[in-house]
Hints:
Radius of gyration: 31 Å
Largest sheet: none
Strand content: under 5%
Shape: flat
Number of strands: 0
Distance between the termini: 89 Å
Helix content: over 70%
Number of helices: 4
Amino acid sequence: MNQTPETAPPPRARRxxxxxxxxxxxxxxxxxxxxxxxxxxxxxxxxxxxxxxWVDFFGAVGRAWTAFFDSIGSTLGWALRYxxxxxxxxxxxxxxxxxxxxxxxx
Length: 106
């Protein structure tokens, strides 16, 4: 058997900054498109107009921020209302259940 020493491949030449910057893979394009759609959906949920972002970026962000906290406040108000409505029925039943089980464990 003739054994030849393994030769390492020659080192690759280092690419320049511009070559690395221009090297865009198809997966990069797909990721970019998906991120654009997700961010667009989030901005649309807060009624942000793309033209407003170009004209008045900080004003548009401020309006989106206000809309976000308004929606959080209304959601919490809605949740607390239904929490109280359910508690009117559930808490008395739970108290009765605890009394019955405590009395039966003597």
